[in-house]
Amino acid sequence: MSSFDRNTPYFSRILERVRLNAPLAAIQVPSGAGQGKLLNERKQLTAASVPQAAEKSPPFREEFVNPGSTKQTFHLSLSCERTIVYHPGDCVAILPVNPREDVEAACHLLRMKDPLIKSFLQKKANLQKPHPALIRKVFGENHQNAAEFIKSSTPLDLIQICQTPISSEEIPSLFLPLLPRYYSIASSQQMFPNEIHLLVALVQYHHEGKERKGIASRFLCEDAIVGETEIPLYIQHTHNFLLPDPDASIIMIGSGTGLAPFRAFMQERLLTRAKGRNWLFLGERNRKTDFYYKDFWEDLQAKHFLRLSLAFSRDYAEKVYVQHRMYEERSELWSWIEGGAYFYVCGDAHRMAKDVEQTLHHIAMSEGRLSEENAHHFIKNMRALKCYRTDVY
Questions:
Q1: pLDDT at 70 (0 to 100)
Q2: pTM (predicted TM-score)
Q3: Which of 90, 196, 315, 334 could be bridged to 367 by S-S, CB 3.0 to 4.6 A?
Q4: Same-domain status, 25 and 171
């Protein structure tokens, strides 16, 4: 296991960044970009011709693939050395830095030019959510009347209206810590020994009429310079979301960027020539623009190494999600589960994961002829036996 952690991270760099999709208004298509393929799918990863581990990392480059989506999603390849060890199912913790304009605005409001303070604000301070100490500094102990304002404010908003001077000594205690962001790894280290692949959606939202972006996703997808910017990171090892015995069958349910660990799973199973069957339920918005790693999945399907069930919710008059595909194929799905298949879910914890579990509950009742109570206990037992594994967020 690698010895890197939050206090002593490994410093990586982006080797390759591919914008997989984007709204037309958000981009300018590079000349000759067209419908390109991922550089790291340059070798056919098929069951018939399993490649050896990549001999070398790809050259530094940035490419563009599909316009016309409702979101922006990126494939990234980060450099790593042998000192970094990861396994399929693990996550990488990214230690992001705050955007330059936010840091400069904070320094201006605080009237600080000290390089140490600037470095703290850039790398350590949460500039999105106010610390209780800063709230008390601005409003005193009785700040209930300002609750709504505080709820919609950033630390910079509060500093702007603060009537009391803020000293440099106070600053570290007035900001919440800038926490790491976790991303499922989308590659097998056996296949790509010097790389960590990520599938990252650029988070975008509005705050007080202004467009804002997620700190880590903006750092990785926009601000970091390919081949130059240092990316502090460490591996967050999983104790649950691991591949089973190579002879065991697996059912994978993934939506959006939740597909990432399943790409790692399939690369690993290809390289080790695992005998177990593989079934992926893949969900996203539109097939044309949001079918991430399309060539890879379809190639595996053509070689009968993967069963693929697709749910592109916005391609139909009525939205179709992964749980609908599960229920449509409930008889075969139940047969796999009865045969000892492991069940994996990765993606949104608030809706998708709950809907998938509810659908599995219904399938246990209809296909397994279990009572509602027994179906509940069946799924609970799957979890206890680690046959039902989740990586949700």
A1: 87
A2: 0.90
A3: 334
A4: no
